[in-house]
Design brief:
Elements (H helix, E strand, L loop, with lengths): L2 H4 L9 E5 L8 H14 L4 E5 L5 H5 L11 H7 L8 E2 L5 E4 L5 H7 L9 H7 L7 E5 L6 H9 L2 E7 L8 H14 L5 E8 L6 H14 L12 H5 L7 H4 L4 H15 L3
Parallel strand pairs: 1-5, 1-6, 2-4, 2-5, 6-7
Antiparallel strand pairs: 3-4
Helix pairs in contact: 2-12, 6-7
C-alpha cells in the first residue's frame, strides 16, 4: 500500500484577519486594502474585504454600487444579519467584498447604547472564517466605535503610512488605541505590518520618511515601498484594483510584492 496515499492532507492554515487602520484621512488606507486584497486573491487565496468606512470607497473601488444595497455592513452590525448574507463577489477571482452603505455613518451613534457594541463585528467575522484565507477590514479614518469593532475582530493591524511631512503625526494615538483594545477586548491583537505608500523617488523627503519609519518599527515595515502614481489614483474611479486596471504598472508590481511579503513574510 502506498503510504503517501494514506498521508493526511496538510492542515489548512488558519485564516488571517487584518484590520487596515490609520486615523489620518488620505493616506492610502483604502487603496492598500483593495490592492493587497486583490493581489492575495490573484495568488489563489480566498480574500474578503470588509468595508467598515461609511464613505464606502472600498466598495465602489471594487466595482460595487453602495446605494440601494439590500444588505450591507450596517445591517450586519445593527440588525444581526449574518455576514455571509451581504458578501458580494467582485470581478477578481477569489476576491469578495462585504459592502458599506451610507447608513454606516449613523451606526457610530446607534452603537453607543447597543449591547456588546465593541464585539459585534468579531462575532460576524468568526461565523464566516472557514470560507476565507484572509479577511481585510477597511477601518474608517477615525477612532470611533466602527474602528474599535474592526480592531476587536482582527488578529493583526496593518498601518499604511504616507511618505510625506506629517507621516507619523497621530500614529502614537492609533498605537495607544490598539493597545487599549488589546488590553480590554482582544489580547492577541498586534501591529504586524507597516506599509510605506505614496513614495516619490524625486524627493529627499520620501527617503527620509521611509528611513524614520524603519528606525521606529524595524522588521514590521514592508520592504517594498508603494510609489505615488497616476494609475493608482485612477483605478478606483473605474471600480477596479490596480492589477486589473493596469496590470504591469509600477503600482501593480509594488502591491504584488507587498501581498507576497504579507503572506510569506520578508524574503
Amino acid at each position: 500500500m502506498d503510504a503517501a496515499a494514506d498521508a493526511p492532507e496538510p492542515a489548512r492554515p488558519l485564516p488571517r484577519v487584518i484590520a487596515i487602520a490609520n486615523q489620518k484621512g488620505g493616506v492610502g488606507k483604502t487603496t492598500t486594502t483593495i490592492n493587497v486584497g486583490a493581489c492575495l486573491a490573484e495568488m489563489g487565496l480566498r480574500t474578503l474585504v470588509v468595508d467598515l468606512d461609511p464613505q464606502g470607497n472600498a466598495t465602489t473601488g471594487l466595482g460595487l454600487e453602495n446605494r440601494g444595497l439590500e444588505h450591507s455592513m450596517y445591517h450586519v452590525l445593527m440588525h444581526d444579519v449574518p455576514l455571509e448574507n451581504c458578501v458580494e463577489p467582485t470581478d477578481v477571482k477569489h476576491l469578495f467584498v462585504a459592502p458599506a452603505s451610507l447608513d454606516l455613518a449613523g451606526a457610530e451613534i446607534e452603537l453607543v447604547p447597543a449591547f456588546s457594541r465593541e464585539t459585534r463585528l468579531r462575532r460576524a467575522v468568526e461565523a464566516v472564517l472557514d470560507d476565507y484565507d484572509y479577511v481585510l477590514i477597511d477601518c474608517p479614518p477615525t477612532l470611533g466605535l466602527l474602528t474599535v469593532n474592526g480592531l476587536a475582530a482582527a488578529q493583526e493591524v496593518m498601518v499604511p503610512i504616507q511618505c510625506e511631512y506629517y507621516a507619523l503625526e497621530g500614529l502614537g494615538q492609533l498605537l495607544r488605541n490598539v493597545d487599549l483594545v488589546k488590553r480590554n477586548l482582544n489580547p492577541t491583537l498586534e501591529v504586524t505590518t507597516i506599509v510605506c505608500v505614496m513614495y516619490d523617488a524625486r524627493t529627499k523627503l520620501s527617503d527620509a520618511v521611509v528611513t524614520e519609519v524603519r528606525e521606529h518599527f524595524g522588521d514590521k515595515v514592508v520592504r517594498t515601498v508603494v510609489p505615488r502614481t497616476v494609475r493608482l489614483s485612477e483605478a478606483p474611479s473605474f471600480g477596479q484594483p490596480i492589477i486589473t486596471f493596469d496590470s504591469r504598472s509600477r503600482g501593480a508590481l509594488a502591491y504584488r510584492d507587498v501581498a507576497k511579503e504579507v503572506h510569506h513574510g520578508p524574503a
